[in-house]
Design brief:
Two copies of one chain form a homodimer. Chain A has about 700 residues and is of the alpha/beta class. Chain A is built from 22 helices and 20 strands. Chain A has four domains: about 1-35; about 35-100 and about 320-440 and about 475-550, Aminopeptidase, CATH 3.40.630.10; about 110-315, Glucose Oxidase, domain 1, CATH 3.50.30.30; about 560-700, Transferrin receptor-like, dimerisation domain (Transcription Elongation Factor S-II, Chain A, Up-down Bundle), CATH 1.20.930. Chains A, B: It is a single-pass type II membrane protein.
């Protein structure tokens, strides 16, 4: 009888709000307005300002210190302790949420063996060990030793002890191995030394195995991560640079989600694939090493990998603030909790912000000052580092409910890579709400500029509709937004503070996934004073409130038109000639984009008209449903049968370098060197039809709802 | 700028309604209430009664006479003329709808050659023709000749002129051919004579080809269709029985939808499969014949099939009555338009009802007396006989829009098979609204009984919740509801009047798909006086109005619990032992069903509580969304990858005879005789997980919307 509980909750909420109104009127000084729980409840700018003011940098710092005090690898005791910390915060009587829980999934993770440490050594022709790589990072701050610091390893790489001649294979891309072969270098049975970047982790092993390589080493090149700095005195703890012994850990699994339960939640009794037959694992042993060791390698190398796969329980923590007016509309805000070691930057900088934001909102809630129009769901995902596992299982378990009701997903994983500028990625409908938030929040520096004004100085583009605006990045699959956008078709975004690219070309912040990613590192080098953390908390918090509280959803669908137009232009420019040679016209695609643009523009005008009038609550809801569900219309689960989870016809992975519709671009790349009537050219035409139907279908949902 | 037009429409509608209110108050006698366009607009019982009274049997009869005056094979000139007739009716200024249009698809149909008629003959060992089958039906009423009467043929059967020994293969099931082989009968190169029934049309040819059969003949057995009557004086025009020369035409295509554009609308520029490589066509020539000819066949038979496949334009006609309050919620009502010959029963009996219903509603609309709360969409589908093509293409083209917004789909194809009793098929949520309608409408006979009371006498079951109730059938894929329920997951139903099964065991009405299915046949034998047609019009009309006008959607989700429980019991009883032997427990399935039942019951209580109070419009909308979208939660496009379109985990085709969850039942059938660790047993476990996740996911959508 769970609804009784919640009905009680709603009634209770109404009573609280009623009480709040009375209190607001009689007991609280002017300025603390308590919105009535009416169907026209809208964003309250005073509440928004209150939230912005109450987000404290010092509290974020304290959160981070606590979160990153110990290593908290997925499913470890400390990871479970943080589950309890989150639950405690979200169930706090004074600053907690309406409800919180921590359901667990049973998922396949991968760990190095404690008894038989992974090992990389140079051996002489007689087999004696000439040189051994370190098995752990150097203890520079007292935090790099201890039983909870997991030694560097390549998660999901199979065990094995290959030995062979060392071959330097650059970034381990397909092209890199092909070049080596072309140069007459024998690859069969070798150990490939590769550096991070250019290709995914797992892809390096997959590519290598195709050429008969027996094992793969992956190191972090100082040129890629440290702007060339490599000596001890140039690196942490003397700078933010990666020390010579630092090793990037990471998952080498090719897909995401629990490897044994694709498309099914990893509940204990769920059907599981045979682990020895499940796809996506690296085919050969792999091991990451530091650049100091990488320098020392030569000739014959022996790699011993003793990783084991284990079924483990991994929890998500979920908390909800129930909506006062439309509780069936969810704004999701999440980040993962698990780290490779202490994970101060990745992911605790995001979780520290999450906790501060939930504290401020929870406090307003518990005081009865505020309740959002729509429901807000906070999530702390488990086992992200192993492949976005917690979030993916959650989307599998609640597919229908989430797809029907979720307004948007906000991801703040690493909240601060560096303290120069905001960086946001997302699908076009969220651009406007991020801009609106960023315009009203002061940048940490320089003084006097808004976050928006500062952002536009670092990264901008020319928009046909708006002129020069900050450049919104697109979403790949680098964090927990991936299942939400690619599998569920929910408008998503990822928000962080990041680098001044004129000052560093580091591939990512230098201590990423190493034992040097600690509180001290953040406090000293990444964001002293935590003002960038606060800026991200405010930006993400403002976006969250605007989405949860605005009467009209602040999602701009006509901004999708700009993306479609630019994809179309790229297709015409780079693929048009090739397609024409095969008698394939882009004419219907042009028409479809035009129809989308016209329908989106008309819908925005309809919104303006409604906003000026006094629409009834159902008119607003109908419009909001169109806005919320637009992203869903781009999903086609049959478009890319070989790409697990990827169903979004606009954002599926693109292997082609042409920045256009991925299905079309990929199909063209594959067809390019095939004959006229090939299967590959049929696939190009199929992909074009899938795309046209998706865009026409999307336009149909934007048109007046009672149009035939 | 299409929205301007519609905004105008809505404003206009409001003005009209306003005017209507004034008129209703001052100018119209009491009783003609005009509902105000308020957010709480609810079903008006007086309007419902008015509609019931205005549905005239004589007008349905006139509609049928006109619709079945000439043969109207899909895409023929007469079919196009009927498109114009429908458009004219739906655009009529006094009884039309708000808007109507007739978009066409370009689809692959199949026709016999005029120059080379299909031909079946008995030949002597020397090759001379000993006997020839008729190439057309006997002209008994003057309507069986003429250029528009398509000769009997098996649509989509490939051309070919096989010749071989005749083998009688019963119904052409897999088992039938296996039995023949077991008996030592050589099948290679033979012509199989089969009778209709037992297996699908195309399946007979597929099964035959597996055994090397060269050609298939299919006849209608008098035992199956005529209760044994077979002489000329026992059959039409002397009774409703099929004359000896009657031949059932039909599509022999194995899937549905346009064969060349699966999952894509068949627009002219859509990607098309190579017709010679597209799956689903019969692998060998096939030809239907009458029972008179079937008797005469013996020994060596020559079959000449000269069917040709052609791309043709086929139109749907769509008409809309825009909703006054929730125009973005659609109640769809449809039937196909195309027939094999005159098609008086199939499908014109349904179209005649459709036109009468649209006339009555259109008249109320144009008078300003009434506008539904939600939008009503009427559809006349093209090319159903070739495989539900028009409706399927429509669902492919507007997938997202329909899936997001459609409340239910009502299909009335053949409206009257016979005049004994109502027969309804549908998914559980529509049972209650059909019952409610049927209880309030008098049966044509016997006098004094409601349609419901009469129905329960012919077909009933014992419901745990309600006691003895009429038996609602389940939906296969026999008409245009198939893409709506199986592909889109929209709650659907099919409504008709049908046989007294104690009086006939006919497989279907005898002249089905023959040249004897004419107006005179209906007028004289099927429904003299058209009172059964009127009863169907009233029932379907009442269901339509209840769905379009009720403030709370009359969909009962807890009735799904009864189906799940009965499926579960069948699984436990018939599969439980087998599963236990393979260590597969149904425990989680039991729990999932229990969770569903509890959530559904609580939701119905929540509905009652809301109905007693004065809910705000958003509370009603939120509840209605849960009711409307429940059916969607049972879809899993990845559940049955080999079954085109079928995504509904509860209603996918079931080959097993156990009346339970189809995926589980089918997987068990396949696994039964395989070894313990086989792929087939893994598939059983996978199907069980898919099912549990679907039921748990469905229950999650029924629980209070702000539950975690």
């Amino acid at each position: 009888m769970q609804w009784v509980k919640v009905l009680g909750g709603v009634v209770g909420a109404a009573a609280l709000l009623g009480l709040g109104i009375i209190l607001g009127h009689f007991a609280i000084p002017k300025g603390a307005n308590v919105p009535a729980p009416s169907v026209s409840q809208d964003l309250d700018l005073e509440i928004l300002e209150t939230v912005m003011q109450q987000l404290e940098a010092s509290r974020i710092r304290e959160n981070l210190r606590e979160l990153s005090r110990e290593p908290h690898l997925a499913s470890s005791p400390r990871d479970e302790a943080l589950v309890q910390l989150l639950l405690q915060r979200w169930q706090d009587p004074e600053s907690g949420l309406d409800a919180a829980e921590a359901p667990a999934y049973e998922v396949l993770l991968s760990f190095p063996s404690q008894e038989q440490p992974n090992h990389v050594a140079v051996v002489s022709p007689t087999g004696s060990v000439v040189f051994s790589c370190r098995q752990s990072e150097q203890n520079l701050t007292g935090e790099q030793v201890g039983p909870d610091v997991v030694p560097p390893y390549a998660a999901y790489a199979p065990p094995g002890t290959p030995q062979g001649l060392l071959v330097y294979a650059n970034r381990g891309t397909e092209e890199d191995f092909m070049n080596l072969q072309t140069q007459g270098i024998k690859l069969e049975g070798t150990i490939a030394l590769t550096r991070y970047g250019g290709a995914g982790r797992g892809a390096k092993a997959v590519n290598a195995a195709k050429y008969g390589v027996a094992g793969v080493l992956v190191y972090t090149d100082p040129a890629d991560i440290n702007d060339g700095q490599s000596s001890a005195n140039e690196t942490f703890p003397n700078s933010w640079c990666l020390p010579p012994s630092g090793v990037e850990r990471g998952s080498y699994y090719e897909y995401f989600g629990d490897p044994l339960t694709p498309y099914l939640p990893a509940n204990p009794s769920s059907f599981r694939l045979d682990p020895d037959a499940a796809p996506g694992f690296p085919p050969i042993p792999a091991q990451p090493i530091g650049f100091d060791d990488a320098k020392s390698l030569l000739c014959q190398v022996n790699v011993s990998v003793h990783n084991r796969r284990e079924l483990r329980n991994s929890s998500n923590v979920l908390g909800i603030i129930r909506g006062a007016v439309e509780p069936d509309r969810y704004v999701l805000y999440g980040n993962h909790r698990d780290s490779w070691v202490h994970g101060a930057v990745d992911p605790s900088s995001g979780t520290a912000v999450l906790l501060e934001l939930s504290r401020v909102l929870g406090t307003l809630l518990k005081k009865g000052t505020w309740r959002p129009r729509r429901s807000i769901v906070f999530a702390s995902w488990g086992a992200e580092e192993f492949g976005l596992i917690g979030s993916t299982e959650f989307t599998e378990e609640f597919f229908s409910k989430l797809q029907e009701r979720t307004v948007a997903y906000i991801n703040v994983d690493i909240s601060v890579f560096a303290n120069a500028t905001l960086r946001a990625q997302g699908t076009p409908p969220v651009q406007s709400v991020i801009f609106a938030a960023a315009k009203q929040i002061p940048a940490p520096s320089p003084v006097g500029l808004s976050i928006y004004d500062n952002w536009i100085r670092y990264s901008n583009r020319s928009s046909p509709a708006y002129g020069v605006v900050p450049s919104l990045g697109s979403l790949g699959a680098g964090s927990d937004y991936a299942p939400f956008i690619h599998f569920l078709g929910i408008s998503s975004m990822d928000i962080a503070y990041t680098y001044d690219r004129s000052k560093t070309s580091a591939r990512i912040y230098p201590t990423y996934h190493t034992a040097f990613d600690t509180f001290g590192y953040v406090d000293k080098f990444v964001d002293p004073g935590f003002s960038s953390h606060q800026a991200v908390a405010r930006t993400a918090g403002s976006v969250l409130l605007r989405l949860s509280d605005s009467l009209f959803l602040p999602l701009n669908v006509s901004d999708y038109g700009e993306t479609l137009r630019s994809f179309l232009q790229a297709a015409q420019q780079h693929l048009g000639g090739l397609l024409e040679q095969h008698s394939i016209s882009l004419g219907r695609l042009v028409t479809a984009v035009e129809k989308f643009e016209a329908a989106a523009k008309a819908l925005e005008q309809h919104r303006s008209a409604l906003q000026k009038g006094s629409p009834d609550p159902l008119q607003v809801r109908m419009l909001n449903d169109q806005l919320m569900l637009l992203e869903r219309t781009f999903l086609n689960p049959r478009a890319f049968p070989e790409e697990r989870y990827y169903s979004h016809v606009l954002w599926a992975p693109r292997t082609s370098s042409v920045a256009t519709f991925p299905g079309l671009a990929n199909a063209c790349s594959r067809a390019m060197n095939t004959s006229l009537g090939s299967e590959a050219w049929a696939e190009v035409r199929r992909q074009l039809s899938i795309l046209v139907v998706a865009l026409e279908g999307a336009a149909a949902t934007l048109r007046p709802v009672a149009d035939l």
